[in-house]
Amino acid sequence: MDRYAERQEVPTDPTTGKPVINTVAAVAIAPSGVGAELSEYVAQAVGVIRESGLPNETNAMFTNIEGDLDDVLRVVRDAAMALAGQGYRTGVSLKLDIRPGFSGQLEEKPRLVAELIDEA
């Protein structure tokens, strides 16, 4: 794969024949109208994400998830439903980086940035 190419060939999963559409998602899920502290509710959504088995990491603002586009969107839906299913009005902020042919980007992107900083 050429990291700098604007367009990549889309690989196919040999077992399913389905295109492999790798996606990195940054998602924040929280209810409205429950008070000033949201950690208890955010933890419920993050718990669903962690249980999904997809690579993920949580920081102060978002949880990043990586996997096939369909799987990532399913996990985001399930995590949102952890709160919405309890009757809470639930907000979801979602940003997707859909990059066919690439994987391991949760580790690779920070590594590349660190490498560029070290070269400067």
Automatic annotation (TrEMBL):
One Pfam family cited in the UniProt record for this chain: Thiamine_BP
GO cellular component entries: cytosol
Transmembrane segments: none
Coiled-coil regions, chain positions: none
Domain Thiamine-binding protein span(s) in chain numbering: 25-112
Family: Belongs to the UPF0045 family.
Protein name as it appears in the record: ThiE-ThiD fusion protein
Source organism of this protein record: Bifidobacterium pseudolongum subsp. globosum
